Write a sequence for this structure.
């Protein structure tokens, strides 16, 4: 049986992806565990990734802002340059070299179709996708094509570029949106049915939102979503019988209860998880549905948290054989994405305008956006070094003590030693004959484990893959440093033989 490290290796990016029971396999029948990044903001701009506030939070609103501040001619120039600069082959190369084997590309339908009566394709948009696929084929990254913004809007929020926060793809019965959405997927299938580097067709991102404070209540649209999936699958399968399909449920892709019948033999259940305790129970609803229908699971969007959350959440996913995709690869002025776009000089004047402040001159605004176009290039970004190690739990990360794989007898406590269920505040109390196990993953450098605790008169043992690394009695120390010996998948157990101690975290350092 392949190890997690072997299943993640880019050598397995080879041939069409297929569902095989609860697993995904490549064209050779080898099991693969997808690990990827989402290239948010490139084809679907989101206001928070620009540090905008107020109503400037969706593609059409950001487009309107730049047109308002800079004029129509400059706006046309800006968006062409933006698509050329924001994601380049250097970004794809960097993802590959970081160890990812896939990338999810969110697409706005208006990139590929004219927002006009009838069906009119935009060849410039398809050329962007074609070039992106070529890069990913060169660097061996499966591509998940994600319609993030469908005609009419499928979510009813800024993220789907809907006009009025209503998912009119589902609510309107007389508009052209339904047919446009179906025909868009047929055209994607026609163009890419022979491209094996396309790993999956992700039909709709986060359809049918849950209630929002600033948006009207919606009727239950589950039946419309199910009808769309049935029709789009039937239409696509007339053209393309090979590609894996990705189906997301309602309520920010959190619900899977609508999947109560068989949809396709070659598909996965795609769900999203944000801002919840990173414990195995976070996956229970999806594992239960998987056991019912025997489909692979895919955590297709997750992230936007702190590094110890990353280093807890994603090893659990990997151990459950659930591939994952981190959101997003790049955004402005960040410490939790791999690439941080530097704020140009004067950017705060743009932000102030979005909040109702003074309007900069055309010349000033154009100069600021010109600087942004340069700053968003991969080479000009700040590269946040601890993000990727935290995702993969490699040397360079910090692991909260609560993020164990297995344990015996230990309890979670706060810093004062009181029992707690609060993951964010928890440490782990060890007493005699108790232990906890942690998984770590390394490539060439086994790394050094630094156990952060108050050790006073404690006898403990640390093993790696059942081999003893250390057995000692420790007094008056706040940490213990232990070099690891193994690369690949490592299972490290820390056991308390005598005394007691509270372990806060394990810092996994490079040699």
């Amino acid at each position: 049986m392949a190890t997690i490290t072997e299943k993640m290796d880019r050598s397995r990016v080879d041939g069409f992806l297929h569902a095989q029971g609860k697993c995904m396999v490549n064209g050779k029948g080898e099991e693969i565990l997808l690990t990827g990044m989402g290239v948010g903001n490139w084809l679907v701009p989101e206001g928070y990734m620009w540090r905008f506030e107020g109503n400037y939070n969706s593609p059409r609103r950001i487009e309107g802002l730049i047109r308002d501040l800079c004029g129509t001619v400059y706006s046309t120039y800006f968006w062409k340059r933006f698509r050329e600069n924001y994601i380049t082959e250097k970004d794809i190369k960097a993802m590959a070299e970081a160890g990812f084997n896939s990338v999810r590309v969110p697409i706005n339908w208006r990139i590929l179709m004219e927002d006009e009566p009838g069906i009119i394709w935009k060849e410039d948009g398809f050329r962007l996708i074609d070039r992106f696929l070529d890069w990913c084929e060169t660097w061996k990254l499966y591509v998940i094509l994600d319609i993030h913004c469908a005609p009419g809007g499928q979510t009813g929020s800024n993220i789907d570029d809907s006009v009025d926060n209503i998912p009119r793809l589902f609510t309107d019965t007389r508009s052209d949106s339904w047919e446009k959405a179906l025909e868009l997927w047929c055209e994607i299938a026609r163009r890419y049915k022979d491209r094996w580097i396309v790993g999956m067709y992700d039909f709709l991102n986060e359809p049918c939102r849950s209630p929002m404070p600033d948006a009207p209540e919606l009727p239950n649209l589950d039946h419309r979503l199910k009808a769309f999936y049935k029709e789009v699958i039937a239409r696509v399968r007339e053209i393309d019988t090979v590609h894996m399909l990705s189906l997301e449920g309602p309520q920010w892709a959190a619900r899977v209860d609508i999947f109560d019948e068989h949809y396709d033999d070659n598909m996965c259940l795609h769900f999203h998880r944000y801002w919840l305790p990173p414990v195995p129970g976070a996956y229970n609803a999806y594992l239960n549905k998987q056991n019912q229908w025997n489909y692979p699971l895919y955590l297709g969007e997750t992230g936007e948290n702190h590094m110890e959350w990353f280093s807890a959440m994603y090893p659990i996913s990997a151990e459950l054989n659930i591939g994952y995709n981190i959101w997003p690869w790049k955004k402005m002025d960040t410490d939790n994405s791999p690439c941080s776009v530097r704020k140009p000089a004067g950017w705060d004047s743009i932000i102030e305008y979005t909040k109702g402040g003074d309007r900069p001159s055309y010349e000033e605004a154009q100069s600021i956006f010109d600087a942004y176009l340069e700053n968003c290039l991969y080479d000009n970004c700040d590269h946040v070094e601890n993000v990727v190690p935290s995702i993969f739990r490699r040397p360079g990360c910090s692991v909260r003590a609560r993020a164990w794989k297995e344990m015996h007898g230990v309890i979670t406590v706060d810093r004062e030693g009181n029992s707690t269920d609060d993951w964010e505040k928890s440490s782990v109390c060890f007493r005699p004959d108790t232990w906890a196990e942690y998984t770590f993953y390394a490539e060439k450098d086994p790394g050094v484990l630094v156990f952060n605790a108050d050790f006073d008169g404690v006898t403990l043992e640390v093993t790696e893959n059942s081999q003893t690394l250390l057995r000692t009695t420790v007094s008056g120390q706040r940490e213990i440093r232990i070099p690891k010996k193994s690369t690949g998948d490592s299972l490290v157990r820390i056991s308390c033989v005598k005394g007691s101690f509270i372990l806060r975290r394990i810092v996994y350092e490079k040699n």
User: Anything to note?
Assistant: The two ends are 30 Å apart (CA to CA). The chain is about 30% helix and 25% strand. Residues 137 and 220 are 41 Å apart (CA to CA). The chain has a mean pLDDT of 96.
